[in-house]
């Protein structure tokens, strides 16, 4: 990633598009605290996560951030219900069983709650991962190509569920995708190329901010790698 300055307001649905190698997954990893920039700062609810140690970052992810991966990352030896339940039990939530059942109901999987991942379709496994991502009631949901391994029908179902939960819960949603049709439905669309933001547009207006390619060329040799990002807190 090269120098960038992004602020994502609370509750906004942002899609990030770009060719392979453009920096999409790196951006998500930086926001999640899974990767660290060489300079700059990343602020979530006003706190600079670059200064946090691993324990503090784990606490942040456990309380404020939900992550949905392309490859599901479910625990094979646990049922769908248990995959959603375990993170809440680790966090010590008293109503964990009831909440796990409610989350599975939200993704239309009540009837499949006691099936293991190997007994579920790809679309069903991704829906379990979405329910798990919402188990900590995150203020931010990061989704890295969540429909990439699914057929069109299941992909749109998964997308619709994430959008519903975004709207119902006011969760900030950052969606990494190659699907421009889905990306166009976001409140805001950010396009990356070669680690730089080349466009940043809002669906609420016709205005689009684009970075001039000549400016990229003139700045191609810069060593400035500052990353300044912020997500505004809930109100």
**Rg, Cα atoms, Å:** 18 Å
CATH top level assignment of the largest domain: Alpha Beta
CATH-defined superfamily of the largest domain? P-loop containing nucleotide triphosphate hydrolases
Average residue pLDDT: 84
Please give the domain count: 2
Uncertain segments are 205-228
Shape: globular
Brief descriptors of the model:
single chain, 235 residues, alpha/beta, Rossmann fold, 2 domains, seven-stranded mixed sheet, four-stranded mixed sheet, 23% strand, globular
Please describe what this structure looks like:
The protein is an alpha/beta fold and 235 residues long. It has two domains: 1-64 and 138-235, Rossmann fold (3-Layer(aba) Sandwich), CATH 3.40.50.300; 73-136, no CATH class. The chain contains eight helices and eleven strands. It has helices spanning 24-32, 54-63, 80-91, 96-106, 122-133, 152-169, 180-183, 213-218; strands spanning 4-8, 13-17, 39-44, 47-48, 65-68, 140-144, 172-176, 188-193, 196-202, 208-210, 226-231. It has a seven-stranded mixed β-sheet, with helices on both faces. The protein has a four-stranded mixed β-sheet with strand order 1-11-3-4, with no helix packed on it. Strand 9 (196-202) and strand 10 (208-210) form a beta hairpin. Helix 5 (122-133) packs parallel to helix 6 (152-169). The protein is globular, with a radius of gyration of 18 Å. The model is unreliable at 205-228 (pLDDT under 50).
């Amino acid at each position: 990633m090269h120098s960038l300055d992004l602020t994502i307001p609370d509750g906004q649905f942002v899609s990030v598009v770009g060719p392979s190698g453009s920096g999409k997954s790196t951006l998500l990893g930086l926001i999640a605290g899974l990767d660290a920039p060489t300079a700059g700062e990343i602020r979530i609810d006003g706190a600079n996560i670059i200064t946090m140690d691993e324990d503090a970052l784990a606490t942040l992810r456990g309380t404020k951030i939900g992550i949905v991966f392309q490859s599901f990352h479910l625990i094979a030896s646990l049922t769908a219900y248990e995959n959603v339940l375990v993170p809440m039990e680790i966090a010590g939530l008293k109503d964990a069983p009831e909440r796990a059942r409610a989350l599975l109901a939200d993704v239309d999987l009540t009837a499949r709650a006691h099936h293991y991942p190997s007994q579920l379709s790809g679309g069903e496994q991704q829906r379990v991962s979405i329910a798990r991502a919402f188990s900590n009631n995150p203020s931010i949901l990061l989704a890295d190509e969540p429909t990439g391994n699914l057929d069109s029908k299941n992909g749109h179902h998964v997308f619709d569920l994430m959008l519903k939960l975004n709207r119902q819960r006011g969760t900030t949603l950052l969606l990494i995708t190659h699907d421009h049709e889905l990306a166009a439905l976001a409140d805001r669309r950010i396009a990356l190329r070669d680690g730089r933001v080349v466009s940043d547009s809002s669906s609420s207006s016709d205005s689009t901010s684009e970075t001039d390619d000549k400016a990229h060329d003139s700045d191609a040799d810069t060593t400035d790698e500052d990353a300044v990002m912020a997500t505004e807190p809930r109100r």
